[in-house]
From TrEMBL:
Organism of this sequence: Pollutimonas harenae
Family affiliation: Belongs to the D-isomer specific 2-hydroxyacid dehydrogenase family.
One Pfam family linked to the record: 2-Hacid_dh
Keyword NAD: yes
D-isomer specific 2-hydroxyacid dehydrogenase NAD-binding domain ranges (all copies): 114-289
Keywords: NAD, Oxidoreductase
Gene3D superfamilies, alphabetized: NAD(P)-binding Rossmann-like Domain
Protein name according to UniProt: D-glycerate dehydrogenase
CDD domains to which the protein is assigned, alphabetical: GDH (cd05301)
InterPro entries linked to this entry: D-isomer_2-hydroxyacid_DH, D-isomer_2_OHA_DH_cat_dom, D-isomer_DH_CS1, D-isomer_DH_NAD-bd, NAD(P)-bd_dom_sf
GO cellular component, one term: cytosol
């Protein structure tokens, strides 16, 4: 039991979110306006009971070992935790809290933005408007592909995947999915299960990646999967960039094996593969999946209540196991 835990907020939060922490805890925070170097983060967190960071703050084994012994909890302001060495944190007796559930709907909205934007050639349309080069309506102009009535393949039918699937009903889409484990009928809600990614790919006019990233998903969507997609397919990624093999996707986009891609996440962010910036059939967004104020506040609230539960001897619902 610690009634006044000291928290270090390493992320560059919107003021409304930062206030959630500073009004509830003795909180120090990053006021540099930029992502901290790991050394700075470790230094600033000296003597703290908990730190709050984001997916841009990587804590590998070495960094975890260097964390101050006072730190009992690491909070990540994300649902993904592939930036943290969970084994090293557990070995050091540090609990990890994250932000599941509260961002599902915002991320699902973003997945639809990606699918629609990529399928309907939004980047090329915006270029015409902004560049002042639009010659007027033409029956040949920017012919895209239908989203409605197509087959949606979801890789990773967790809560975000299911929120994406729920929206597909309004578009009269047949939903297919691949997961390690098949869901029960209620959660499946009519979606068709595929026990392999290969089978899912064959049935996906839109392949939407929504699975958590881990070492086993690195490069999972590669040339051998992409070539199984039906002609004119669209690939979307709302999860983590390294699930896609960049070279293979770029090749598929250039040759037309894949018609278009909608990507909110990229390997090596923000230093993305330069060809993603050049290809007209890439609808790219800068990792804004959960970026609405309501969702970002809910993420902050969840971490704060988890911290309060933890330091008063309870069990936070958002503890990463
Ligand atoms: C998440 O919550 O994992 C988002 O991708 C932000 O990192």
């Amino acid at each position: 039991m610690n009634t006044n835990p000291k928290i270090y907020v390493a992320c560059n939060f919107p003021p409304e979110v930062l206030a959630l922490f500073t009004t509830r805890f003795g909180a120090g925070y990053n006021d540099t306006g930029r992502v901290l170097h790991t050394d700075e983060l470790i230094e600033n967190a000296q003597g703290m009971d908990a730190i709050v960071l984001t997916a841009t703050d990587r804590l590998d084994k070495t960094a975890v070992e260097r964390l101050a012994p006072s730190i009992k909890v690491v909070c990540t302001y994300s649902v993904g935790n592939d930036h943290l060495d969970l084994d090293a944190l557990q070995a050091k007796g540090i609990a990890v809290l994250s932000t599941p559930d509260v961002l599902d709907e915002a991320c699902a909205d973003t997945a639809w933005l990606l699918m629609l934007g990529a399928a309907r050639r939004v980047i090329e349309g915006i270029d015409l408007i902004r560049g002042g080069t639009w010659q007027g309506w033409s029956p040949r102009q920017l012919i895209g592909r239908d989203v409605w009535g197509s087959r949606l393949g979801i890789l990773g039918m967790g809560r975000i995947g299911r929120a994406i699937a729920k929206r597909a009903r309004g578009f009269d889409m047949a939903v297919h999915y691949h997961n390690r484990n098949r869901l029960g009928a209620e959660l499946e809600a009519g979606a068709q299960y595929h026990s392999s990614l290969e089978s899912l790919a064959r049935h996906s006019d839109f392949l939407c990646i929504a699975c958590p990233a881990s070492p086993s998903t690195r490069g999972l969507v590669n040339a051998s999967i992409l070539q199984l997609l039906p002609p004119d397919a669209v690939v979307c990624n709302i999860s983590r960039g390294d699930i896609i093999c960049d070279e293979d996707l770029l090749q598929a986009l250039k040759t037309g094996t894949v018609a278009a891609a909608g990507l909110d996440v990229f390997a090596g962010e923000p230093n993305i593969h330069p060809e993603y910036r050049q290809l007209p059939n890439v609808f790219g967004l800068p990792h804004i999946g959960s970026s609405t104020l309501r969702t970002r506040l809910a993420m902050g609230e969840l971490l704060c209540s988890g911290l309060q539960a933890w330091f008063s001897g309870g069990t936070p619902s958002n503890r990463v196991r």
